[in-house]
Amino acid sequence: MDHTSSSTRTNRDPAMTDVARLAGVSHQTVSRVLNGHPNVREQTRLRVRAAIEQLGYRPNRAARTLATGKSQLIGVVAQNSTLFGPSSLLAAFELAAAAQGFVVSVRRVRVLDRGSITAAVEHHREQRAAGIVVIAPTAAADAALTEVPTDVPLVAVDGDPERAGAALVTVDQEAGARLATRRLLDAGHETVWHVRGPEDWFDAAGRQRGWRQALEEAGAEVPPVSPADWSAASGYRAGLMLARMPEVTAVFAANDHLALGILRAMSERGRSVPGDVSVVGFDDVPEAGYFIPPLTTVRPDFDTVAAEALSLLLSGISGEQQAERRIVTPTLVERESVGAPVGHQNGPGAP
Description:
This protein is α/β, with parallel strands linked by helices. The chain contains 13 helices and eleven strands. The protein has helices at residues 3-11, 16-23, 27-34, 42-55, 61-68, 84-99, 114-126, 139-144, 173-186, 202-218, 232-243, 256-268, 302-317; strands at residues 73-79, 103-109, 131-135, 154-157, 168-171, 193-195, 250-253, 278-282, 296-299, 325-328, 331-333. The strands form two sheets. A six-stranded parallel sheet has the order 2-1-3-4-5-10, sandwiched between helices. Strand 3 (131-135), helix 8 and strand 4 form a beta-alpha-beta unit. The relative contact order is 0.11.
């Protein structure tokens, strides 16, 4: 026996042909699975994935680029921010892309304006990215996308849900806000006050629309909106004003950090939650279950948003039609910050 050649075969890295042989398919089928091609039967895809895992196969990206003429790089443009929503979307997308054999290059911009986004997209084009994802939650960011060259597939995440002719994936902000507002109305509150997010964010605008729709559908009074940004500090400031108003018994906060600030303000002003005031947030941050009280909130499915964005981008990379909108519906997470407005007429007045 030729021990040398046997040792060489045993120790070399597994190749695509080894995966094909073990899975009982052609190497072209293995390539389609690695590239996320939609025209592969699910049973075949699972068999190939199992063979890849069993062999520990790692695709040679350079060879794949030469063979297919397509880069395995996906470019992402995102704001340089620690905000929970965009950060969670980005993390989920990186995991989804890696599972399909792609490398993600993130270009962070300080400001979501036309110049910054255009420059970031151009950087990814120069790097020969196969496709580009732009997390575009503001009007300025979305407007910049109209000037992007069409030679590279591009998907907007959290962009303008009303803009036609663009590939877009977003959370149904209005549906989430209606869930939050109806939960408070169903608890017996006559109306619901709203602390909104920044004026130029699509998420904030959608959540405000959903809140208003729910109130109008219920025939409830629509109170004035309390403006804020996304921070707990601005929620605290808004909460201090609302706490002075005994008629305020229910508040929908545009995100969980705003809700956290509101909870602090209510506590300082001697108004208990949910005894005197009920509060619902949006985002379901990991800490939401540990607020005092644990926060009822709306949970966007960031994993599904990321998977849909990748699917839409891969369709574009494969040369298929991209001008499609995919809207992901959020869910309500029930905790302990909502109660019936018992005795609210005789609750504490202005301190």
